[in-house]
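User: For a teaching handout, I'd like to show students what a predicted protein-ligand complex looks like in token form. I'll give you the sequence and the SMILES for fe (ii) ion. Please answer with just the structure.
Assistant: Understood, here is the input followed by the structure.
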Amino acid sequence: MLIAQFSDTHIKPRGRLAYNKVDTASMLRAAVSHVQALPQQPDLLLITGDLVDVGDAEEYEHLKDILAPLTYPMLVVPGNHDDRLTMQHVFHNLLVKPEGEFWQFSHQEPHWPLRIIGLDTVNTGHSGGLLCQARLSWLEQALSNDPYTPTLVMMHHPPFITGIGHMDDIGLSGREAFSDLVRQHDNIELIVCGHLHRNIRSRVGGRSVMTAHSTAHTVQLDIAPDAQAMFSMEPSGYLLHWWNGTNLVTHHAHTGKFEGPHPFFEESGQLIV
Ligand SMILES: [Fe+2]
Ligand SMILES: [Fe+2]
């Protein structure tokens, strides 16, 4: 099974740039083309929040058009820039469309080796995230219902301190309880997040956790408590999680135009040195 993960697509209304600088729509189109050109096609696309920039219907309509060429089944969770109600109307190929107070789900297709749990970390009106008691109780139940199937958890706000101070200031409340909970469930194969706009890996409650790069701009790498809130235009990308039969193996795909591929060997079979 191959799973692509987009994150923090931050789509604006047509013709508008994010922060007057970032053409998030063109960058997402580049990611769509890149994934379509992969020699192995994903079985599933995850999007880990901040799908649009301010949560307007106009932005979601734009997002819908950009994603239209992709026919993979999709699972998404909201980020702090999203509106849960508006985003319900966007996707034509969502496997699950939660309708309760929170956008949470536990889903496995019969032919999948993995179960996917989606968590809603949005604290409405705030940039920081929250896993309240209601959401944690739901998670506890979902995990207890199936203690064996390898499970991938997707959520927007990462449940760990990254070191980038201004992002940690808008981090996740409730992460200690989350850590205690996931520690009890060793079938959690991987926890994937967004929000940081860069690829960061850590461990929470003994489980592997990582944030994905945005398909657009990048939060500046500055691991300081007083780091300035800045972004840069490093090569953007997405993650590819491959199930090898036992574990998930994660590859980082860059979506820019790069030289190559070039052969390692000459036609004679000699290694080029
Ligand atoms: Fe974001
Ligand atoms: Fe975010």
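For the handout, you might add this sentence: The mean pLDDT is 96.
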